[in-house]
Structures are given as structure tokens and as C-alpha cells.
Amino acid sequence: QVQLVESGGGLVQAGGSLKLSCAGSGRSFDSYAVGWFRQAPGKERDFVAAISWSRSNTYYADWVKGRFTISRDNAKSTVYLRMNRLNPEDTALYYCATPGTRCTEYIDLYDYWGQGTQVTVFS
Q1: Full strand arrangement of the beta sheet holding 2-7
Q2: DSSP alpha helices (H): ranges in the chain?
Q3: Are 110 and 100 in contact (CB under 8 A)?
């Protein structure tokens, strides 16, 4: 069993930045890939970024366009999502999740999810 807890969301003005954290615990978390997803009201949950356990592989959604950076600190069992140049379209509930050892952008392969952290961007 793996537990994931997101934090770092909040209210930010357009053009600003936020850094989200995903603290993991439970068996083998540090050997698992982790992904970030987001879901806006009335919309489907979308892939944002993913990172392998070794940090050697990272994937990003095309629309990220260099604004977001995923990273991890295995000593702290924490994965981060740094978000720059935020705009109101980035407003959503952001989730972290793990598919196990395979790093992937496919949401159906993710088994364990956190509760999410809200990001609201105002203009």
C-alpha cells in the first residue's frame, strides 16, 4: 500500500509561480514512478508530468511548454512540481499518483492517488 499527500496549492496571480509537493509513504515508494495530473471543474483529469524513480526519465504534457518542472528527492520521499508563468487556465485540482515502477503518461495505469491540492490562478 502506498499513501500520497499533496500540498503547496493556493491562490496566485496570473504570471506567478507555485511549487507543489507530493509526500509518499508505504512500501517501495522510492522505487516507484510518480505522476502529476490535474482536473478542472467539469473536465476530465489530465496528465501533467511524470518522473521515474531514478529521475532519469521525465515526461510532460505538450501544453506544459517548458513552464512546469517535475523533480524528486528520494531521501525525503517527495516529488515536486514547479509551475511558472501560471495563467487562469491552470486553475484545477492537482493530484499526484503512482503507477508502480513503470513511468508513464497513461492515467489508466496509475493505481494509487492522493486527495489533491487546489490551485487557483486569478487575472
Answers
A1: 2-7, 18-26, 78-83, 68-73
A2: none
A3: no
CA 114 – CA 121 distance, rounded (Å): 21
- Phi and psi angles of residue 80, each rounded to the nearest 5 degrees, phi first: -120, 155
Number of other CB atoms surrounding residue 55 within 10 Å:
13
AA identity, residue 81: L
Kindly state the cell numbers that stand for 121: 490562478
Inter-residue contact 20 to 35 (CB < 8 Å):
no
Confidence of residue 23 (pLDDT cuts 50, 70, 90): very high
Q: Are 68 and 92 in contact (CB under 8 A)?
A: no
Is residue 33 within 8 Å of residue 55, measured between CB atoms? no
Distance CA 91, CA 120 (A): 5
Q: Give the mean model confidence (pLDDT) for residues 55-65.
A: 92
